[in-house]
Input
Amino acid sequence: LCGFPLPLTPSRKGRGNFIFFEMTNAFFFQTPYNSSMPNIHSKGLLKILAPFFLLSLVAWLAICNAGNAQTAGQANAAAIDCPILLYHRFGPAPVDSMTTMTEVFLSHLHYLKTHGYTVIPLSRLVDAYLGKGAPLPARPVVITVDDGHISVYTEMLPQVTKASIPVTLFIYPSAISNASYAMTWDQLGELRKSGLFDIQSHTYWHPDFRKERKRLTFVEYEKFVDMQLTKSKTVLEKKLGITVDMLSWPFGIHDDYLISRAVKAGYTACFTIEAHHATGADGITKLPRYLLTNANRGKEFEWIFMSKESR
Output
């Protein structure tokens, strides 16, 4: 284990269940090379030294196993290749540029199912980046929705329930139960209780951080950023009784400063709108997503899942 040569006796050699017994046996009971050494049994040192020896061995093995686990986790993270899909609104007709027709969304689900893709929770993908949990399936894909539009409840929920697939919603709380286009807190709570929807943060009111940085002083901007990040997290956790540790950047805008404030606010993973697969080479605070609209149908949708050589 960890390259340490275990001094096993021939009668027990190869039997891992006796590692501790054999190492203790080798240390205390095998005949010393120097026959002039005093017999440790006669000196009563066995009872004194054995606990220290065993404790040291346990600690050393724990360190080695932790290192092995970390190496395995790093290998799993390096092997990640997962598309993250991003929707905004749904409906029977494309009333605006961000609406995906419900029938088009259904065609997306049909493609994923018939081509062997497994829709996994976003949290499971994040765990893979952190080196935790079981390895990802052969063809993983993640579905996310930004904003909190009412059509998630009226149009998407029935289809997700029928397909029994996990979805992550990124919500900006200022709109919930306030804006006519948004869901209510009761509706969000219903989605959460379904067990299919995970709810995370999209800042408090979806600002354009580039514009805010231009019009505010540095001190004002820092306070503004912290408010957007922490208030969204706090409100969602209090209203829904959940843990919020993931963030979707509004308009995909992010930089090193914003990332540092997000980490300080308690976010583990953050997401952009850069159109490529999430891989082990991506930083966990700026993971890419494919922004989908009604135009992403047929070959335009299938393109996402083609091999890297074909794209």
Confidence is low (pLDDT under 50) at residues 1-37, 66-73. The CA atoms of residues 84 and 289 lie 5 Å apart.
